[in-house]
Write a structure and sequence with these properties.
The chain folds into two domains: 200 residues, Jelly Rolls, CATH 2.60.120; 242 residues, 3-Layer(aba) Sandwich (Rossmann fold). It is built from eleven helices and 25 strands. By secondary structure, the protein is an alpha+beta fold. Helix 9 crosses helix 11. A hairpin with a 4-residue loop joins strand 10 and strand 11. The longest helix has 15 residues.
């Protein structure tokens, strides 16, 4: 810890700013930071939800906090100070809130694993939680100006709608502190809108993970996610009016490109095979598709429907060159975790298509004002996600009521064109199709809907 202390103590006060401090924090190598795993090495009291060890308060505060399993801070308001929190061990959540006109509402939850950084600008309202049931969370906190104590820190209790203002005796941002550790406590002081209430009418919600997991970790997450959804995935698609209209329109569009003779078809990330069944149902030669997917649960359903199945991630599977007349990659190309792997996939698809073959896929539009794209870009810049390994347009999310996370990349039109050209596709059509608004309707407005792409191999 000594070299960390020296690094921060060498900063001139005139050089201190939220951005400059962030540059230093993001440059730290978490593997070289020494800290204690023993909770007895930290200052605590009977009221403590978490324990702390302060290393220095000049020119800023540097402290390490130990969070027992399931512990969390109260929701609290940063007024007059800013900083960063670096996860040294365990896994935690940084939960942000919006506070205005006596209404406190959930804004964003971010999961932070080892090396993940929680941004805490002046004015933020947030809480920190150890999301593990069994393991401690240990975090490095850097604040300016230093918090010699928690005097005048405002905390919120959402269950009782209580606001408290701590005094200098408090050791935690917590309502477990004794009453004599508060300047004042006011009950029924605000209205609270929880995460559950905000997402109640939504099917999914954004859930960033820091730092960005590796590609193998993301594929494992996606496999778990779709295994969890397999038993209800088709039913959800059909019952969800906008999704059903959207997928039905694309299925019909692809069917227009079917040739009249016998064809070979590859359905990448085809899941249960439902969409291939729909696309090929009127083909005169009764063609079936080879369904390739990473979810075994999904493929069991595809196999039962009469399709050939292959269990694999696409880039890991060797397939025949110049073999397929038609390849489609529906509602899933954006799951590929990186630019390099997306390019690799497109080159592979180009190789596997016969001359004159067609490749169809759809992706989420980064500029669609009715979807997550603009918000994802805002989060990307506000939370400095580039330094956490993200590309602009990357999103992690969860299904409401689910317990697993998935990854999706949002695209710009220029990004798609560039990828396809580099992969060898010279004949490309890009269509806009309504998704949330006017689902399944084709439009010329690039700020509406998703992109549907048809690429021909020369």
């Amino acid at each position: 810890m000594d070299f960390i202390i020296q690094r921060f103590q060498s900063i001139k006060q005139s050089e201190l700013s939220y951005r400059n401090l962030g540059e230093i924090v993001h440059s730290l190598d978490v593997t070289k930071i020494k800290f204690s795993q023993n909770e007895n090495d930290y200052e605590k009291s009977e009221a403590s939800q978490y324990f702390r060890k302060i290393y220095t308060t000049e020119p800023l505060e540097l402290a390490v906090l130990y969070w027992p399993p399931n512990s969390e801070s109260a929701i609290h308001y940063h007024n007059g100070f800013y900083g960063y929190v670096l996860v040294l061990s365990g896994e935690g959540e940084n939960i942000e809130y919006h506070w205005k006109n006596n209404i406190l509402s959930h804004s964003l939850t971010m999961k932070c694993n080892v090396g993940g950084i929680m941004n805490e600008p002046d004015g933020v309202v947030h809480s920190i939680k150890n999301s593990s049931n069994t393991k401690p969370l240990i975090t490095l906190h850097i604040y300016y100006p230093a918090l010699t104590n928690l005097d005048n820190l405002t905390v919120f209790e959402p269950k009782t709608h209580t606001i408290g203002v701590l005094n200098e005796k408090a050791l935690n941002a917590s309502f477990t502190e004794p009453k004599e550790h508060f300047h004042k406590i006011e009950t029924n002081a605000f209205k609270f809108i929880s995460q559950e209430q905000k997402i109640e009418s939504k099917s999914h919600y954004i859930y960033p993970i820091l730092p960005k997991p590796s590609e193998s970790e993301i594929y494992s997450m996606l496999s778990d996610y779709y295994n969890e959804q397999a038993h209800e995935y088709d039913e959800f698609d059909i019952a969800h009016e906008s999704r059903n209209s959207y997928t039905t329109a694309i299925n019909s569009k692809i069917a227009e490109y079917l040739s009249q003779g016998e064809i070979t078809v590859l359905d990448i990330a085809g899941g249960t095979g439902r969409r291939s069944t729909e696309i090929l149902k009127n083909h005169p030669f009764k063609s079936t598709a080879t369904i390739l997917d990473m979810s075994e649960e999904m493929l069991e359903r595809a196999k039962a429907a009469g399709h050939q199945v292959t269990h694999s991630t696409y880039n890991d599977k060797l397939l025949e060159s110049c073999h397929y007349d038609l390849i489609y990659f529906l509602y899933a190309f954006g799951h590929i975790p990186s630019h390099s792997s997306r390019l690799e996939s497109l080159r592979k698809i180009h190789t596997e298509l016969k001359p004159g073959g067609i490749f169809c896929f759809d992706v989420f539009n980064r500029g669609n004002r009715n979807e997550w794209g603009p918000n994802a870009i805002k989060i990307y810049h506000t939370h400095r996600l580039a330094e956490a390994g993200y590309d602009e347009g990357d999103v992690f999310y969860r299904k409401s009521g689910g317990h697993t996370s998935a990854f999706l990349h949002y695209f710009s039109r220029d990004e798609i064109k560039s990828l396809l050209k580099e992969a060898g596709f010279n004949s490309v059509q890009i269509f806009n199709i309504g998704y949330v608004k006017n689902p399944g309707e084709w439009t010329n407005d690039e700020s509406e809907g998703n992109f549907f792409i048809v690429a021909h191999k020369d």
